[in-house]
Amino acid sequence: MQAINSIGINSDIFANSIKNNPVTTEKTVDEKSSKLKFDDVIKEAVNKVNDSQVNANNSIESLIKGEDITMHDVMLSVQESQMSMQLMLEVRNKLFEAYQELNRVQL
User: Fold this and answer.
1) Are the C-beta atoms of 74 and 59 separated by less than 8 Å?
2) For residues 88 and 45, is the Cβ–Cβ distance under 8 A?
3) Nearest 5°: phi and psi at 96?
4) CA-CA distance, 77 to 6, in Å (whole number)?
């Protein structure tokens, strides 16, 4: 059940960060600022997806080595990593479509 909850938390990173923090193009000198930048949000999301993939690979290796892990836990970690990757790809596709749409706008 915890794996399913963590997927929900991972998927909320895009919505909450973009909704609550405006995207700015200027770099501030103060890195301790409470506002998140768009590139920081994307980097954090990619890092979480990567961590999920690494966790799934480690659990598969543990199962193969015969360590104390259940098949249920392995399947949950693999599904979590697969769903987080699919979410990241869909967000990337939507961002790319928005970029293309902005390029089509004539000034």
Assistant:
1) yes
2) yes
3) -65, -40
4) 11
